[in-house]
């Protein structure tokens, strides 16, 4: 057999042996591995209030209708922006035709536009909403957790999740009769906040709101946030 051919065959055999040894080592490295999961959660109070108000009207002239809605929105937004600590933004705006009874001829146009308000000051936003009811109607109200608040609670839960993971890893090691364990990998995940149920309110006239003795007290509620620690440990046997 030529020298070059013998050398190539030897190299091929060596490569195959190394691959076999690597595969064997990988199998051995995974031999005592155990998947471990721990999860912690906490109820967090909502600290942001969201209110959606809207203006809706109908007119046979779409241009006049659009002008009417725009004037109403501008007036409401101007008043809302004077309130301290309240974020104001425009929501959806849609117009659509109104047909006759036969559904063939357009008899008028109807338009609806929203104003969205957000604040951490529930009392201020409640009062502002009441003040704007003379111009707008209530579409809905809900609550959420501010980003800064969410991050603070998540950071605390991450520490708790890691401690819980360590406890479970040690529990698994003891159950298997191991003398200790090595951490192979660890993944931390936040399940996020359960979306709060929106508090829907019926459209109320300005008179109806004015007849109320006082702005109702707000119960913002809570949402649950959870953080999980998923990982793999390698149990070291005696």
UniProtKB/TrEMBL annotation:
The keyword Transmembrane helix does not apply. The keyword Hydrolase does not apply. Pfam families: SIMPL (PF04402). Keywords: Signal. Residues 1-25 form the signal peptide. InterPro entries: 26kDa_periplasmic_antigen (IPR052022), SIMPL/DUF541 (IPR007497). This is SIMPL domain-containing protein. The lineage of its organism: Bacteria, Pseudomonadati, Pseudomonadota, Gammaproteobacteria, Pseudomonadales.
